[in-house]
Amino acid sequence: MTVLLSTKTYHEEALPLRDDDYEGDPLGERSHVLPWSLATLNSAADVEHYLTALVDDRTEDVASQLIGYISD
Known about the structure:
Helix content: 10-25%
Number of helices: 1
Largest sheet: 3 strands, antiparallel
Number of domains: 1
Radius of gyration: 12 Å
Order of helices and strands: EEEH
Number of strands: 3
Shape: globular
């Protein structure tokens, strides 16, 4: 599963990411998850460029916000 990240802060429902939310190195700019922008990949081969991933706790936060967004 992938979600869109943005450096824009004008989306009220965007989930801000902190440096410790990443499994690897954090991204260079403050980023926010846009929970309404979700994509499911069928295989790892679909990923052209891998930068980092979110830690499990933050992934659960994103999933909860996505479920809340969809069910409202």
